[in-house]
Design goal:
Order of helices and strands: HHHHHHHHHHEEEHE
Number of strands: 4
Strand content: under 5%
Strand order of the largest sheet: 1-4
Oligomer: single chain
Length: 256
Amino acid sequence: MLSPDLLHQVIKGTFKDHLVTWVGDYLEEEEGKARAAAIMDDIDHRIAAAPAFPGLRRFPEGRRFKQWTGDDSKALMKVYIPALVGYVPSEIIWALAAFLEFCYIARRSRFSPSGLDELDKQLNSFHHYREVFRETGIRPKGFSLPRQHSLMHYRTLIEEFGAPGGLCSSITESRHITAVKKPWRRSNRYNALRQMLQTNQRLDKLHALRVDFVARKMIPPFHQMVVKEIEDDEAGPVDELDAIKSGSITSFWIPS
C-alpha cells in the first residue's frame, strides 16, 4: 500500500488533473468548443475579479498559468467554485465542494475520531456526486483512477502513520528547489553541475557559520535574509539573488 501523497494524489492529482479538466470537457461537450471557450474566458474573469483578502491569492489572468504548481492549485481551490456557478449543474458544484472539504480535512496536522468520520463522509459525498461526469459522458468508463482510488485508504493510513502532511512529496520537491533549481539559476549554464555543487557547499558552510555565530552570541538568532520569489516573464519564478544580479532589487537584512 502506498503512503498518502497530498500533492500528487489530492491537490494536483484529483483537483487539477481530474476535476478542473473534467469541467472544461463538460463545457465543450454541452456547449460546443466556441461557446465553451467564451464561458472559460468569463470564468477566468470571475477568478481575476476576486477581491483582495488576507490569505486569498489573486489571479489577474484567471486560471491560465504558464506552469501549475501545488501552491497554484491550493490557491485556486478557494475561488474556483464561485466562478463556476451558473455554468455547470449543481451536482458538479456539490462534487467539487465535497472534494474540497475532504482535501481541507486531509491537510490537517491533527485528527480526532470525529474528524476522520467527517473525512469519510465527504469522500462518500464526492463519490456520489461525481457520477454526474459519468452520466454526461465525460467519464463513460467510470472512475478507475489510481489517484482517486487512493483517497479511499486515507483514513486507514492516517490511523497507521499519522497526518499525511508528514509524508507529502512536496517536502522533497521543496528541497529540490533549494538544492537544484536555485543553484542552476545561479550558474552560467556551462558545466553547471560543478557550479551547483560549489553553491550548495558554500551555502552549507554559511549556514554552519551562522549557527556558530548565534551560539557564540555574536549575532542575534532572529536575523535572516529577505528571500522571496519574483516572477520573471520569460524564465518563470526566480529568486532574489538572480534579481540582485540583474539590478532589479537590492538585498538587505532585517529581523524576522
